[in-house]
Each structure stands twice: as structure tokens, then as C-alpha cells.
Design brief:
This protein has helices spanning about 5-15, 55, 65-70, 75-80, 95-100, 110-120, 125-130, 150-165, 180-195, 205-215, 260-275, and strands at about 1-5, 20-25, 30, 170-175, 220-225, 230, 235-240, 240, 250, 250-255, 290-295, 315, 320-330, 330-350. It is an alpha+beta fold and about 350 residues long.
Length: about 350
């Protein structure tokens, strides 16, 4: 259901084809999905509020098809060139696998783009959806410096764009009082560092609380494969690490659900320090089930992070700040200075609804 003024709704109707079953009432426009919901087409139907079949000419790809394409390095242009056997010509998982077996991954992007154009999909839409191509030398203009992206930046950009294409992002923000955590950390900071060899931060406390929450609400520790929900009975906790010379990487603490707060502190310190020194192994940035990103270390109070695919949620941690807060003490409301942090949860609305979030 999309809410809009009647004039805006009429403009939207004129701008793009609308599915047959449409009802409106007082500016509330209700879009119904295509009638064909049989077989694999049910998992790949085009959401009516996005575009009609005539608009996309069947060039909608299910999450499972996009996942396989991402893993096998297939571009959006190449996907669009495959003749689909699904409902209304949509590309199915079997179509993509058969195309790959026939050596389709080596298809020329130019030829693929030409085929897409002949199918009626706007070239601009193909270019916007496609993974970023290799940098092409560009002459800098007056006052403009051209810096080609390095491989890490390109991969991160493609990953973030793909996440936005796959997951309908929703975010909720909560505020947590860490005053007692700060006091506990301060009491044990020196002995912890003497024993462990590194400083005790607030991240292990937040990670421990996160793992406990994921055990209580396992649908946030899951992924989506087509029309299947894959609930993970283990927690591989990703922790985003900003690199010194730019870029971001998410190493994974495996088996985080089997660790106490001290074990999480050791695991996070280990992968984060090796990430910054570029000593991680490839498998140490794979198979995460949930991610935490701490932009508060740069002084940011709040942010809305992008989901790390194929996960369905990510927790953003803001800066720890002193704030006057109304608390209850001896049955009376009083104002006290507390150490507060804002926590933002971005989640995939295909699986996680507002109440669960």
C-alpha cells in the first residue's frame, strides 16, 4: 500500500504502467501482485508497486539468481541477455546455471547490452544496475582530479549497490544507557590490559548483548534464498573495520555464540588488528551471519548502515556521549548525567517486520 496525494498518484500512474488490479480510495493506492503465482514464477514475480511486466519486459531477477550471479561474476548486462524460461520470460536459477555451463560467463558485455536494448529495457537502467566496469582513463578538467577506484573500493561499491537492489531497507533507532558499563570498564581497564595485552573497549559488551539478542530472535540471524528462510543456529559475527588508507572490511568472529565477553574481546581485537595490517585470510571475511559497524568511534552520534548481504540485518553503534536524562530514583523522577549511545538497526523488510526489529 502506497500513500500519496491524488495528484501525485495520478502522475505516478502516467509515468509507469500499472498492473491491472488497482484500487484507489482517498489518495491511498493499493497495488496487487501479478495473478501468476504458480511454480518458480511465484518466487520471482515483479512487485507491482515497482514496475509492470511490460515496463521491465521480464528483466526482473530473483534474489537467488542475483546471488548466483554475484558469486560467479556475472554482470547485470549478461544476466539480461539470457533467454529466460520462467513465467513471462523471467530468468530462472536453472536458466542461469545452464548458461554458465555453456560458457556464458565469457559473453561480451557489448553484445549483452545490445540484446537488452533490443528487448526494450532502457540502456540507462542497464548501466545503473550493472556492476562497475574497470576504470577507463579520463582526462581531468580544470580543477578536477580523476582518481580511478582501486579494486577494494570497486568491490565494496558493487556490494553496497547490490544490497540496496536486493533488500528493502528499514531502520529503527534505540537509545541505550551504558553508564554502568562505563563504570565497569573503568574499574577493570588496567588489569585487563595487563593480562590480555590490549585495551578493553566497549565493543565486546555490545557484541555480547548482540549475540544474546540473536539467540532470542533467530530470524535476525538468517538469510533468504529465493522463497526459503535460512535460519543460522550459530552466530558468525562480522565487525566492520575502517582501514588506515581508506576502505572498509568486515572480518568475522566465528562461533561468537560460544564465547563470553572476554572471548569476544579477544576475537574482535584479533581480526580487527589483522584487518588493519592486511593479514586476514579470505575465509575470515566470509560466512558472517550478522554485522556490527561502529561509526561512533569517529564521533558520529547516529547512522543508518547498509545491510551486508546475504545477511538480513546490521547494527550501527553511535558515539558514547554524556547526556542529561530523566531517570527514576527512589520512586521520584530526577535528572542525571548518563552515558548514552544510539543504536540503529537496519533490516531486510522481506523477513524482519517492525515489531521484530
Amino acid at each position: 500500500v502506497a500513500a500519496a496525494p491524488a495528484a501525485a498518484a495520478a502522475a505516478a500512474t502516467a509515468a509507469a504502467p500499472v498492473p491491472a488490479a488497482v484500487a484507489s480510495d482517498g489518495g491511498i493506492v493499493e497495488y496487487s501482485a501479478p495473478a501468476d503465482t504458480a511454480g518458480e514464477g511465484a518466487a520471482e514475480h515483479v512487485p507491482a508497486a515497482v514496475a509492470s511486466d511490460e515496463d521491465l519486459e521480464g528483466r526482473f531477477f530473483s534474489p537467488v539468481v542475483l546471488r548466483i550471479a554475484s558469486e560467479r561474476g556475472v554482470s547485470m548486462q549478461q544476466l539480461a541477455s539470457i533467454n529466460g524460461t520462467g513465467s513471462r520470460g523471467r530468468v530462472t536459477k536453472a536458466d542461469l546455471l545452464a548458461w554458465l555451463e555453456q560458457g556464458g560467463a565469457s559473453a561480451a558485455p557489448a553484445a549483452a547490452a545490445a540484446q537488452v536494448a533490443s528487448a526494450g529495457m532502457p540502456a540507462a537502467a542497464v548501466q545503473a544496475a550493472a556492476p562497475m566496469a574497470a576504470p577507463v582513463p579520463v582526462a581531468a578538467g580544470q580543477g578536477v582530479e580523476v582518481i580511478p577506484m582501486d579494486n577494494m573500493r570497486r568491490l565494496m561499491a558493487e556490494h553496497m549497490v547490490r544490497s540496496k537492489q536486493i533488500s528493502p531497507h528499514v531502520a529503527l533507532v534505540s537509545e541505550a544507557d551504558l553508564t554502568r558499563v562505563v563504570a565497569f570498564r573503568d574499574r577493570h581497564a588496567e588489569t585487563f590490559k595487563a593480562r590480555e595485552g590490549f585495551s578493553l573497549t566497549f565493543m565486546p559488551f555490545i557484541a555480547d548483548a548482540t549475540v544474546r539478542a540473536l539467540k532470542e530472535f533467530p530470524l535476525l540471524n538468517a538469510s533468504i534464498d529465493g522463497t526459503n528462510i535460512l535460519v543460522k543456529r550459530f552466530v558468525n559475527l562480522g565487525v566492520a573495520v575502517a582501514l588506515e588508507h581508506g576502505g572498509l572490511i568486515v572480518p568475522v568472529v566465528r562461533g561468537a555464540d560460544a564465547l563470553n565477553a572476554v572471548g569476544l574481546a579477544r576475537g574482535i581485537y584479533d581480526v580487527a588488528s589483522r584487518a588493519r595490517s592486511r593479514k586476514l585470510q579470505p575465509e575470515e571475511i566470509q560466512d558472517g551471519t550478522f554485522t556490527i559497524t561502529n561509526f561512533g568511534v569517529f564521533g558520529n552520534v547516529m547512522g543508518i548502515p547498509i545491510i551486508n548481504q546475504p545477511q538480513v540485518a546490521i547494527l550501527g553503534v553511535g558515539a558514547l556521549v554524556k547526556k542529561p536524562v530523566v531517570i527514576e530514583r527512589d520512586g521520584e523522577d530526577v535528572i542525571a548525567i548518563r552515558r548514552m549511545v544510539q543504536l540503529s538497526l537496519s533490516f531486510d523488510h522481506r523477513l524482519v517486520d517492525g515489531a521484530l526489529g
